[in-house]
Amino acid sequence: MDGRIKEAVDLFQEVLVYGTERVIKSVDHPLWKEYSPEQIQMLKLIGSEKQITSARLAVLQAVHKSAISSRIKKLLQKDVIQVVQTTDKREKLLELTDKGQAIIEELDQVLADYLEKLLSENIADEEIEQFLTIFRKLKTIIKMDGV
Amino acid sequence: MDGRIKEAVDLFQEVLVYGTERVIKSVDHPLWKEYSPEQIQMLKLIGSEKQITSARLAVLQAVHKSAISSRIKKLLQKDVIQVVQTTDKREKLLELTDKGQAIIEELDQVLADYLEKLLSENIADEEIEQFLTIFRKLKTIIKMDGV
DNA sequence: ATTACTAGTTGAGGGGGTATACTATTTTGG
DNA sequence: CCAAAATAGTATACCCCCTCAACTAGTAAT
């Protein structure tokens, strides 16, 4: 544990724990106000799996099933997802509606534009590669691969 | 906007937006359950400024003053901060109690131990320097310097 | 069939946030 | 000098997030 680890710890706290939220806040777009980050993540998960159960969403988002339940209710009211019944009548498969599909595409574009501006204004071309290397590494460390 | 920006955007979302929360969750220590990240940040801010007003905390944490007000109430109940009256009777200066001071020291140690383990197990010595470079950069980009 | 398990919902309680309205105090300025 | 304006912080209503425990309904297993 040298001084560099200490600095890394401090940076981790400042940048990851407290900084991320600010970046999210400063993305100025109506959809970012209408949908919470958790709702957006859920939409993206449903989109990537096409059809998914509540139980699997709880695993993927790493929260209690009741948190998922209320989130689903809100997204159903917004008409961005819909339910498909299976033979097992306990179970409900969720999928995106056309509106939901359109919304995640727009959200992706908005974030991409924002980050592109942020990165291109502040990071030199040579640094982008380093940025990617570190973030790929972080992704594996955080063990988000399965998500 | 080449493919690298696209990858950066995806990584940003996965690692920063959704990944950080998991790391925080996986720090297994009673204090991390007893105090929310926002409460911890507030304690650290009070600690670093010695004495601070509610209004300044609202600026530093970038939230509405009423959010600060309720947070202060909770921290007062936990006896980790105390109020000092100034000549301006509208204003209340906040400072850490001994208990509060002890708690941020313990929290720092806990997070340091956790991250040290995480980083040393997953990042080679040569990569640490890269990690630091990128994170210093991110810190300035996120404009957290004043905090 | 009867019991045991599983999927998902509900409600209480506590964390986060905003905006508005309000109290109390200080400043300002005619 | 005193009334009006500005300021610090609180309270309330309403929203999101979360957990845990109790519950319904449907399926599986003995």
From TrEMBL, chains A, B:
Keywords: DNA-binding, Transcription, Transcription regulation
Source organism (scientific name): Planococcus donghaensis
Pfam families: HTH_27
GO molecular function: DNA binding; DNA-binding transcription factor activity
Name of this chain's protein: MarR family transcriptional regulator
InterPro entries: HTH_MarR-typ, WH-like_DNA-bd_sf, WH_DNA-bd_sf
Gene3D superfamilies linked to this entry: Winged helix-like DNA-binding domain superfamily/Winged helix DNA-binding domain
SUPFAM superfamilies: Winged helix' DNA-binding domain
Domain HTH marR-type: 1-140
